[in-house]
Hints:
- The structure is a single chain.
- The protein is built from two helices and no strands.
- It is mainly alpha-helical.
- The chain has one domain (2-67).
- The protein is elongated, with a radius of gyration of 20 Å.
- The model has no long low-confidence stretch (mean pLDDT 87).
Amino acid sequence: xxxxxxxxxxxxxxxxxxxxxxxxxxxxxxxxxxxxxxxxxxxxxxxxxxxxxxxxxxxxxxxxxxxxxxxxxxxxxxxxxxx
Length: 83
């Protein structure tokens, strides 16, 4: 499964850059073409970010990468009797 997500990540970012370039360099008179390229670029960017975040979580969970240096959630809560 991680390999499929990694492939999806690469394809999504490639789509983001390719369609983003088309959307930025397209002639504004070609309204539908530029709009479709913009939507596809946004979709590729969104899928790329979600896939990348999934890969980061998976690599931290399996021990391939170190966990991020964050404070655990239990330390942010106040004890029951105190406000």
